[in-house]
Amino acid sequence: MAGGDRSLSVGGDALGQFVTGDNNDVLSITVNATHSAVTVVRPAERPKPVRRTRIERLPRRASRPPLGRDGELASLVRSITGNEPAGVHGPAGIGKSTLIRQAVFEIGHHDGVVFLNGHGKDADDLIQSVFEACYDAPGYRPGEGELHRLLAGLRLCVVVDDLDIPARELTRLQDAMPSATLAFSSGERLLWGEGGDVALAGLPASAGLQLLARELERPLFPAEADTAASLWRASEGSPYALIRAAALARPGEDGGTALLPAPAEVPGLLRGAVAGLVGVPRQVLSLLATVPDAHTTVEVLTLLVPGATTTAVDEAVGRLAGLGVLSVTGQHVRLAGDPSGTLPEHLALDPRQLAEAVARLTAWVSARRTEPVALADHSLLIAALADAVGRAGRPDLGVALTRAAAPLLACSLRWGAWGRILTRGLATARQAGDEHAQAYFTYESGVRSWLTGKRVAAAAAFGAAAAAWYALGDHTGAAIAEGAQALTTPGPAPLPGPDSSPGTDTSGDTEVDTGASPDASSDTGSGSDHGAGSDHGAGSEPGPGSDPGTSSAPSAHGQPPPSHPPASPPTPTHGPPPGTGAPVPPVDPVGLSLFAKVVIGASLLAAAGGTVTVLNMGGGSAAPPTVPLHVHVATSLFEVRDMPGVPEGPCPGGTGTTSCTKVSQVVKGERGPVQVIPAQPLPQGVSVVYWGCEEGPSSAACSVKADGERTVCATTTSPDDEPARRECLRLTGGRSTGAPQTALVHVELGATDFEVTVAPDTPGTKPCVQPPLNLDQNAGQGAGPPPRTCEFVVPLHTKMSLSAKITGNTRGFSRPFNGEPEWFGCDEGPASPSPFDPNGRGIDESSGRQEKYANGTGTCTLDLTTGRYIGLSSTDVSDAGASALAGAFAQFPRVHLAPGVTRMPTPQEPPLERVPCSSFGGPAGTECLGTPSNR
User: pTM of the predicted model, to two decimals?
Assistant: First the structure.
């Protein structure tokens, strides 16, 4: 890199070097096996991306076009060629990947086509992949501003198969490529309002029968017509299920041509086929069953299966895909959803096989010929195997794997994949008690936080790493961390020094440092893996106070470079001075994460197991009898820092997430609460939910009667915590009915002239604020006024109270609001239909307010055995909406929504249907509004 006085001097063999950032924040990173060294460089020294003359990254073309999808394909192509975003969504095995890949070859775009596999990748990593497809700039990840400038003028078509991001991230992905057209496939619908969305259903009957004949490689026999039709009906036209049935065809009684099985025979035949697997097919399936959410390639599978050849693995994958137990999309292979419980219970690798597979993967990761981007594509596999080997009692192998992967993943420039491995590595190192590895992962988490603009988190992580290395006697490592901490500690921005290069224009170097981050992108990992180093709200921090040309690498004497010292001595944030021999302090690389504590009622707790608590008992010296209470907390949203009891297994800290079980001795026969209390409000619509309590499964509160050994499990209603909720069901002996355990509270609002705030009393659920209705915004467009509603998704069986605040002035007269909230459809109101007179209420002359309608109430409480649809208006004389709400709820005083409904449909969507509430886990004898799948 230019500027010899700013070159890096690091120990060990360098594995790679890259540059990131823009404007006044450009960082050069040199990665070696022991640490990443960061240097602040001048903007003029960053690489100059060169646009590729041909932008084309296409998937492998299918040998045969999809059957029965002409209409859906035409719809996709029409949207894409019209420069509109296009999405296709549907359940697994329905043919989304086949359709979106076929669409790639049906379109043409001005500047090129970029096809990406989105499984396990966050929006920022996908954007970096698009940049690399369009520009030749090895080792460079532009900051957000530079990236937007480079991609803004490109009229691309970007196609993402298996897009695996939240709906809120889709806008960020589109905004990064404003001139591009985005098309994608996903499990859930992500595209609303604009563009074309295709909800992919099963194949029509004719196409389903054609597919069966194609897979059998012969026409269907007349005698098979009824069987084929039954298979199509039973599978609801799922291509995957039909292909599986064809693969299970077996010879008839005469031993001749294989015949289709009847639908009832498919599960048994499939179980038998899977149980009878031996050799490479069995090893491949066992490996992928160990890491069910991760994908890999035939090449890597060949490395992991002892004695296998590429040909043997390729044949095994084809055979297993035909049976419907593997999903193959392009080059990627992963376990399909368990078809009807057909996989054997003990299919996963045993501990010896698992240890061998991890050792083989570690060797592949460590090989210098492994490309960093290919490694990033396997970050889910690496993280899953590290987890699995930790559960098998060998966390040291997981440490070795993640430790080998982390440096190369930094060089991949995929911050999401890198963060996933840093988070997993730190948790595994804690489980193994490897303090050296903990210090390394903490330091690298600080580097990642710095690169993503999270300087507060970076400084904290560097300080913790310095303290850890001091305690371990590694003064060189501590000096490196202290130097990095000095560069990231907020302080006044120094003036940049002159560039020694003759003839260099330094005008661009005199700008004031506004603290812009080198990469202001979101700092989140994928799926349930949050990237290490996320710093919520750190984007407002000032600049690092570092001088271009300053390096975090030590000098030859192992000390930070002295040329531009910080305003104060660089001391570690935590920990002892050198040589004290104090233990390694706790590490929190996540920085400003959410935290929580667990509280067990004093009436339950007993003085046992070294825990001193207060008992609400009279005198007497005899200790009361006790029973064990196991409390398990698992969530990706916050970290529990304070939890009573003795740990049962690992309780990793410093990751911003929680997976921990502790046992306490509680007084037998007593009753009391168990609470998880977040330190800050959870995201809107998300709350803590419990299993194993007196209130029943998926309850919003938890009380325990200690009549015997009990287990309580707590997590949240967040979609990211769906695996944790299934684990809570399992731990507490529950049985999943497949019914979602959430309730939607939909509030239809009147009082259109005023601002309305609706606040539930459910812990962690944020209030909803709706401004006055702007009737002018739709003028001339022929559109009606937009809906004015509030919605809350909470655990089923929540007992909720709602409060309302209405403020502002009436339209036209500027008179302040004069009235009280009036609720309809709540538990305080009538339960049976009643006559309604729209003129049935008068005006109180003393207050100037309308009187309440007969079915209106001043308060609103809800016992949510189902979701509820309610109304809110007011007694202000200008509130014309009150009459409409009162009339509707007089006819339908209780409107129940099916458990699992998460939102009301838009006017463009099919309305909800009347269904028995009991079919979705609600009370018997009650009618709900819902759909077969529930939105």
Answer: 0.57
